[in-house]
Every structure is written in C-alpha cells, then in structure tokens.
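Write out the 3D structure for:
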Amino acid sequence: MATKTKVEETAQASTAQQDLADRAYKLLLRRATIAAHGSKVSASLTMLASGLGTDAAAVETALAAKPQTFSRDERGGEVYFGIEKPGLHSDLVADWKPQHDLAHRLNPNATVITPEESRQMAAEFARRAAVAKAAREQAEQDQLLLEQEAMRAMQNAAAAQVSESELFAHYATPESSAFYELLVDEEPIAVEEPAIPSLPSTIYTLNVNGADQQVDLSAPLDEISSQYQPAFAALLRAALTEDFRFVNFDVQWYLDDLVERFTKGDIRRIKDYLTETNEALSDRTFLTDLFNKRPTDADYETYRFSLNYRLLKEKKEFEFVGVDDERLWLTANATVVHQKRKASEIGQDYRYLDEPAMAESDDAVSGAGDKHKLEHTLTYYEYENGLMPLDQAAAGFFPKPVLDDQRAAIFRFESPQLYVTYLTELRFPSPNRGGYLVGLDEFYQNLVPGATFTIEATARPNVYTITFNRLSAQQEERLLQVDEKRNRYIFRPVLFNVQTNPQMLLSEARFPRLESLHRFDEAERKRPELVVSRTFEAVGDTVERDGSSVYWALLDDLFPAVNIQRPFSRAYLRAILTSSQHPYFSPDSEGGDSYYYDPAKK
C-alpha cells in the first residue's frame, strides 16, 4: 500500500513539472517575437518564476529535467535558462526544402558563404567606407587651405597693386590658361535681355450703392477700408454664401467640416432648460451649465459658433432674441415680457414709423443720434401701455437685428434710482408694422405722462440704465387718468416730483374739456383722421370762419391730446392736417403752426 502511494506521488510530480516546463517554454517564445529563427532566447530564473507565478526552486527543478529543450548557464551570480527559437532550419521541421529559401527563389546562382566569410566582407566594406570618408575630408581641407591662400594673395596684391594675371599665375594650370586665352580671343556672345512682364493693373471696378467706381488697390489699406469696406464685405459675403463649404451665423463664417455636431439629445436638454427657467438664456450659459465648457478651453469659440448655428436651424423649437455678442435664445412662441395689448395691434399703431418722414421724432428732448444716450418725453399712450416707439432717434440708439428674419431682442433696463431691473423686449419693424419697445409698465408708474427720462448704454450690448430727474419738491396737479369702470378719461389729483415737459403735461388747467372723453374702440382707433377730428373738438377753440363755426388749435395743443388714443409723431400729425385727402383740415394762413377743422366739409 505504501509503495502504490509513492508511485502515484511521483507520477503526479512529473506531470506538474511537465506542465510548468511547457508554460516556461511558451513564455520564452514571447520574448523571441522579433528574434531570428534558430537564435537563442534566455531569461533569468527570477524573471521566469515571477512570470509563471510560482516558486523559483520549482521552476529550476522542472526546467533542469528537460536539458534537451532548456539550456542552463550562470552569469553574474544569476541562473539563466534559454531555448532556441524554432524555424525552417530547426530540427523540429522535418520536411524543410531548400527551394523555399529566398536566395533559391530570386538568385539560384548565388554563392553560398559561411558566417565567417560574411563577417569578413562586412569588415572590408566598413574599412573601404572609412578610407573614402578620410580621403573626402582631406580633399575638402586642401581646397579650404587653397582658397584661404588665394584670398591672402589677393589682399596682398591689392596692397601692392599687382596685376590680375600675375596674381593668378601661380594657381593657373596650363589647360586653364589656354582656356582663358581662348575665351579672351573669342568675340563676345550677344545675350538677349529677357522681356520684363508688365505689372497687372491695380484698378478695380467696384459697385458702390448701385454705381460703379474705380478703386486703386495700390492705395494704403486703411484708406481703402475706410471708403469701401461695406462694398468689399458684400462681395466677400456673396462669395462665401455661394460656396457650400462655408456656413455662417451673422458675420461669423466657418468651414462646415470644422463645425461641431450636436445630437438630438443635446437639443432636447437645451429646450428643457429653457422651459424650466422660463427666461431668455445665452449661449454661454448653455455651454457652461450643460456642456461643461469654459471660455479658457481652446475649442470654446468653435463650440459657441456651432451651438448658435445648430439652434438657428431648429426654427420650430427655438427663437433668437439676442444682439451682437449677447446671443440669447427662447423656445419658439415663448413670452417673457407681457404686454397689455396685442402685438399686432401695437405694430399697426406704429405703422407710420416705416416712413422716414413720418417717423421723424421731436419727442427726444436731446441726444438724438447719440449712440450712448437717449432722452425721451413720455406720451399718454406710451404711459398706459408701457411702450416706447422705435423712431429715428431710438433706431439709431438701439442695436440693429443680428439676423435678417429676427423678430425681437430682449434687453435689461437697470434703474439705479429705484434699485430695480426691468426685462424689456424690442420688437423690430416688419412689413406693415412699426417697431417699439415694451415692458416699461412698472417703471412708468414712477412717472406721469409728459415726464422726461434718459436711457444710457452700458458695456454690455443688451443692458441699459434708465433714469429720470427728481424735483426738489413735490408738485400736485389734476392730471388725466382713465376710469376703467366707465371707460372714460377723468382728471384726478396726482403728486409727483419728476421733471416734465410742460407742453406734454395733460393737466385739467390746460385741457379741461378732456374730462369724460370716452375711450375709442378698435375700429375708431384705426382711423387716425377720426382721432384728430375728435381731438380738435376736445381741445380746439370754436371760431367763425367764412360764415361757419370751425375749430382752431395749435399743433402744440393737439399733439399731446392725440397721443391719448393712439401714437402720433409731430411729423405724422402735421402730414394728416395738410393732406389733400382730408380737406376738412387746413393750416392757418397767419402761421404759428396752427390749424382749422371744419366739420361741415366732412
């Protein structure tokens, strides 16, 4: 029984050693990946034990049992085991044939040399290369010495005024001398001078405002840019538009291949974020909060352009309401600034602003054309609806739309006197509708119709400050207000301490007959001539003219009163009073910017 157990243990031990030897062989083959066939590959016993994950003594015992496969040697006190990489010339390959050799297939007549002969040939080639290199370096050194000696001879000859022939006699060979004499005796060869090509013309014909102009492109760049920049920009924009490789957002153009792509999931996240916040958000906010992008990132501006370009393509989902560098977005058909009347009705009221002559604004107290400051006098219509017209003064002050089809832009008005910020919306003009600013209802509650206020630009293109001048003492006047229950206008006592334009103040002392004036319905408001005639009856004086009773009034009295029912500019009101379509209005021949209204001629 004891003998049987000993035999089983020996068999098991032999099987374990065989498995360990096979694994060591495969491990050594991995080190022989780039080694030639038949070359020896070895590794230390420590490395093999670590790679096999077992004891070094067990590895040494297993490999020593197969001396025909593993060779053992010691180097520097370390035991190494090695194998010979098998290949075509290995004894393991019994069916190897010489016709498979590269030399036999490509050059069967090649001379077979021994490894020793190959080493001798390589050494000879190296020796010849070294000799050739030394000879080349010596020749270069001799040439350098010769040139230096010639240079010194020239310097000495210049000092001693030696002739050129004497100078080079020492260096000239007989052949070179004969060749030199041959060149001297020959007649000079006539060489034709190459024709200098004419320079291209620098005159370019450019279309400027519908007329062709000659532009000299050789002029300084600053001068050309100052005079013709819009025309050249239009040409460049047209060329880029026709090239399908380029895409743009406003004045920024990118190669389409460089634009970042956004998935439908990214677009959905942006829409959900806008819906959740219910306000206009900028592209910078999206990049920071949703895409973890920072302005310091190298690809930040590319991502920013790509985001705006992609959102612009999603017109059914998003609407652009930004200006210049403040690119704001809303979900389509969203409303963040509420207004008392329909946008279409207000746009129709300001339709006259489409005509430059009618939009001329006399309401601006000062600062017309100033890009940083705008002063305005408040009318009753604007006060009641929280509006401000986009007349010529305002159109030159507020920024232009960024996109051709842009409907509106969102602004923030900061009141440092009231410590309040107002969100406003600028509606840009469209066909048959004028532009206006809406959202100032709360601010106007601190003013009265006829008050003056100032809007100033800030460093941000969509942020403004709005202020008014306070009086040192409060004033009390009976001013016009609306009675919502009776739908009529009445006078009530009002305390105010803001600066006003006396000509625009609707006080009972100046316009007593406006008491109980009813508010017009929409059909009546749409007829400006009817509004003017009713205003004549309320503020005009009854006089006799040509045997009939007519109304007479100054334009300064008519203007604040007509702006109760609907908006007018002075130019628009004057155009109605002098139009041949309304013969019942006529100017006073005595001047003074006064007019008559004859009801009998209607």
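The longest helix spans residues 115-160.
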